[in-house]
Amino acid sequence: MGVSMGVMDWLGRCPLVAILRGVRPDEVEAVAEVLVAAGIVIIEVPLNSPDPIASVGRLAARFGDRALIGAGTIRRTEEVTAVAEAGGRLLVTPHAAPDLVRAAKARGMVTMPGFFTPAEAFALIDAGADALKLFPAEAGGPATLRALRAVLPGEVPLLPVGGVDAGNLAAWRAAGAAGYGCGSSLYKAGDTPDAVAAKARALVAAL
Hints:
Blueprint: H1 2-13, E1 16-19, H2 25-38, E2 42-46, H3 52-63, E3 68-72, H4 77-85, E4 90-92, H5 98-106, E5 110-112, E6 114-115, H6 118-127, E7 132-134, H7 137-151, E8 158-160, H8 169-174, E9 180-182, H9 193-206
Parallel strand pairs: 1-2, 1-9, 2-3, 3-4, 4-5, 6-7, 7-8
């Protein structure tokens, strides 16, 4: 339960998860700086970004005491190892992969695997997942999250990812979301730190 409390501590500071898909190592620190300044302290670098392990390493070295840094789009055990060795403490997957959850938990990482059905959710919970990422969230909308929330254990945080923006945060919250994964509504490849800062402020204000 201790690590699960850790997840809630981070989400309590700010329930937004920044998904920096496409970010480069030479720009990732400047982008993260404006996110942390806006109060966003959970940052994920998807592995389909340029040299993502280098970005995770840079973020962990600079923000590891102030933010929960990790990687997303993780699909293999060796990727879990690489992220952990770079200093990443957060595992996010696009799919329901109990084996990856167990591998990450063995390394003391916080896990936020993806799911879409109750069967997937319970398999991930049994594997020790700290939080669950409803993905692709826009395919079901808040009504799907509300229905899932009714059957899943109340202490397991659910976070919609996909199509989440400042305009629909309230609807997701009403449906039972404990946090929100924000990709293009927060960062698109090539965005300047100033552009990201403006989007971050808008999302934090919408909370």
